[in-house]
TrEMBL record:
EC number: 2.7.11.1
The protein's name: non-specific serine/threonine protein kinase
Major location category of this protein: membrane
Alphabetized GO MF terms: ATP binding; carbohydrate binding; protein serine/threonine kinase activity
Signal peptide: 1-29
Source species of the chain: Quercus lobata
UniProt GO cellular component terms: membrane
Domain Legume lectin span(s) in chain numbering: 32-280
Cell compartments where the protein resides: Membrane
Keywords: ATP-binding, Glycoprotein, Kinase, Lectin, Membrane, Nucleotide-binding, Receptor, Serine/threonine-protein kinase, Signal, Transferase, Transmembrane, Transmembrane helix
Topology with respect to the bilayer: Single-pass type I membrane protein
Family: Belongs to the leguminous lectin family. In the C-terminal section; belongs to the protein kinase superfamily. Ser/Thr protein kinase family.
Gene3D superfamilies membership: 2.60.120.200
């Protein structure tokens, strides 16, 4: 048994020795690598709602809802050598942010994508993330590998929730997915909200020998966590063609959302160069401010007017409500007369709960109220039934 193993190893080793120099020479010349700390004057292939802003943000947004867009590295990348059909190892990292019109609702997400074509023609927006359509979703002829940052739960694709990261192979039904979170150095996973508007970093690593893909997520400025968020053992060789395009796909749904990529680094057969976080473009704060001016200010003004109107109405009503109506009998008790306003407060607005009972007196109805917090009333009380008596003049309510 042992001996056979040794022979096998020697045989394999000799093969490696022969192949290795060849592999290296073929591979080295084709290894693509690029690092963009912001996209100012970067040549990307853009379509749909994808734009590069003046300060170098890659932005996917549109006022018109349910749109899609793509941003691809413009030239195809070799993912396999000419000798065999085994997909290379690769590594990529990018910083993204999702800013929504509403704090708890967004849509639909953004995905890192490896595809045989740049534009993903025929793909749909909204829940399809600009990746597939209803006829080709799940089709093995797609040859698409994607890491989705999905912010809407689409039950048709068995999404776990509206805040997840997934590895999608040829389909929006993720091969593996999990709630957005990251492994903190203090131990344990901490939840993240993809649509928080805060930049977050993603690392995607594929090991062509182990045939394993890892996805790691963390808030910006947090070092890459030691434990990945997702780990999928899957040979990408049958999915990935010899040359592929890499980039991003994003789509919007019914909620005005902006998806941003702040920086992106990629390397074939090696570790992607670290992004320089301090060099990344800033997210548009002005956008929120202009939103405040265009949407917020009119709302605030309308509210102010409403508040003013209701305030004036209140004052008028109050004045009327507490207007004194003096009756003959009241004049007899001149000094003991209480203002309607004081009685109103003491009886908590002549609340039913404060009523003790109803009494008839001089052919008029009187309600007895308890007013423990208005001792002065005791004086008035003795004049009547040894109880607190307040006459509620119902006409005054009108
Ligand atoms: C990245 O690719 C360029 C050629 O495009 C090469 O000169 C450079 O050495 C590569 N850098 C790394 C880190 O592989
Ligand atoms: C939104 O997308 C539509 C269709 O793609 C396009 O005509 C329109 O100019 C875009 N609007 C903005 C503000 O980008
Ligand atoms: C961008 O890249 C494409 C593909 O390599 C090329 O055809 C095009 O000329 C480039 N554009 C600019 C402005 O460099
Ligand atoms: C990708 O590879 C498959 C099978 O190897 C092939 O049928 C398909 O045409 C390729 N796609 C592109 C866009 O080259
Ligand atoms: C779906 O996408 C495929 C691949 O791009 C395309 O050939 C097909 O026409 C699309 N189907 C529909 C219904 O748009
Ligand atoms: C894949 O696409 C082919 C050709 O468009 C179609 O015949 C087949 O039914 C599709 N398979 C699935 C699983 O959708
Ligand atoms: C983290 O998110 C998951 C899934 O949404 C939830 O079940 C869990 O309670 C959250 N944990 C904390 C500490 O908020
Ligand atoms: C994925 O993560 C696991 C656990 O940290 C690690 O052992 C493995 O080497 C990683 N694989 C890749 C492809 O980075």
């Amino acid at each position: 048994m042992k001996r056979r193993n040794v022979y096998a190893n020697i045989a394999m080793f000799s093969k490696l020795v022969i192949l290795l120099p060849l592999l290296i020479s073929v591979v080295a010349s084709q290894d693509t690598n690029f690092t963009y700390n912001g996209f100012r004057s970067v040549n990307l292939s853009l379509d749909g709602i994808a734009t590069i802003t003046s300060n170098g943000l890659l932005e996917f947004t549109n006022d018109t809802k349910q749109q899609k867009g793509h941003a691809f590295y413009p030239t195809p990348i070799s993912f396999k050598n000419s000798l065999n059909d085994i997909a290379f190892s690769f590594s990529t990292t990018f910083v993204f942010a999702i800013v929504s019109e509403y704090p708890t609702l967004s849509g639909h997400g953004i995905a890192f994508v490896i595809a045989p074509t740049r534009g993903l023609p025929g793909s749909l927006p909204s829940q399809y993330l600009g990746l597939f359509n209803e006829t080709n979703n799940g089709n093995s002829t797609n040859h698409v590998v994607s890491i989705e940052l999905d912010t809407i739960q689409s039950h048709e694709f068995n999404d776990i929730n509206d805040n997840h990261v997934g590895v999608d192979i040829n389909s929006l039904d993720s091969d593996t997915s999990t709630s957005a979170c990251y492994y903190a150095t203090s131990g344990g996973f901490m939840n993240l909200t993809l649509i928080s508007g805060h930049p977050m970093q993603v690392w995607v690593e594929y090991d062509g020998i182990k045939k394993q893909i890892n996805v790691t997520l963390a808030p910006i400025n947090v070092d890459k966590p030691k434990i990945p968020l997702l780990s999928l053992s899957r040979d990408l060789s049958p999915i990935i063609n010899k040359t592929m395009y890499v980039g991003f796909s994003s789509s919007t749904g019914s909620v005005l959302t902006s998806h941003y990529v702040l920086g992106w680094s990629f390397k074939m057969n090696g570790k992607a160069q670290e992004l320089v976080l301090s060099q990344l473009p800033k997210l548009p704060r002005g956008k929120e401010r202009s939103k405040l001016l265009t949407i917020g200010l009119p709302i605030i003004l309308v509210r102010l007017v409403l508040v003013a109107i209701s305030g004036i109405t209140y004052v008028i009503k109050r004045k009327r409500k507490f207007a004194e109506l003096l009756e003959d009998w009241e004049l007899d008790y001149g000094p003991h007369r209480f203002k309607y306003k004081d009685l109103y407060i003491a009886t908590k607005g002549f609340r039913d709960k404060e009523q003790l009972c109803k009494v008839e007196f001089n052919q008029l109805s009187y309600w007895l109220y308890s007013m423990p917090n208005l001792l002065v009333f005791q004086h008035l009380v003795t004049l009547y039934l040894g109880e607190f008596v307040v006459r509620v003049i119902s006409e005054m309510e009108c």
